[in-house]
Specification:
mainly beta; Immunoglobulin-like; five-stranded mixed beta sheet; three-stranded antiparallel beta sheet; 1 helix; 8 strands; 14% helix; 36% strand
């Protein structure tokens, strides 16, 4: 056996070792749990002036953790370490009416435990930071500011609120889930509905 063949074999064995260890690392980082967020939305139009129906929540967000990988179906499965500890959520906004101005996205901390396969939980979330409705794009809808969005020319602003929840399983694997909530904003349009 020549020296170059020995070097080639050693390189091949080393390459196989790297591939085997990297596959194990990938498997460890992919959580066997997925967070599912669903929204029971009660308000679709928000009147910035207030009025009838505006003193209620936009909706309810339900969070469930479901198992993606169960392994061998014939073996008993211990899912205690697949429960998810939620630690923060992020709210971002996407205009759906052609405009680009949005409220400032934000992140808030939270603490909740979601049992895998359970019925889920409903957690209160802040949809807009304090003072958001006195800034762009909402302030343009007031009559003293023209009553129209300067980007679209419409008397309403339409956007999706995107809620993303982050956490990790009790085994330490990171998980997240998100939902979109479509909203229309107006000023003095007969209340919230």
């Amino acid at each position: 056996m020549t020296k170059s063949m020995r070097v080639a074999r050693i390189a091949l064995v080393a390459l196989l070792g790297v591939l085997v260890f990297s596959c194990k690392e990938i498997n460890r980082q992919s959580a066997p749990v997925q967070l599912i967020l669903t929204t029971d939305q009660t308000l679709f139009t928000l009147d910035l002036l207030g009025g009838t129906g505006c003193n209620q929540a936009i909706g309810t967000v339900n969070i469930r953790a479901i198992i993606l990988q169960t392994g061998n179906e014939n073996l008993p499965l211990d899912t205690r370490f697949d429960d998810v500890r939620l630690d923060r959520y992020e709210v971002t906004y996407i205009r759906t009416d052609g405009g680009t101005l949005i409220p400032q996205p934000f992140v808030k901390s939270m603490s909740d435990l979601i049992t895998t396969g359970g019925t889920g939980t409903s957690t209160p979330f802040i949809a807009f930071p304090p003072g958001a409705f006195t800034q762009a794009p909402f302030v343009a809808l007031q009559p003293n500011n023209g009553g129209r969005d300067p980007e679209t020319g419409k008397n309403v602003v339409q956007m999706d609120l995107v809620l993303t929840v982050f956490g990790q399983t009790l085994a330490g694997e990171r998980v997240s889930g998100s939902t979109r909530i479509p909203l229309t904003f107006c000023f003095n349009c007969g209340g919230c509905r």
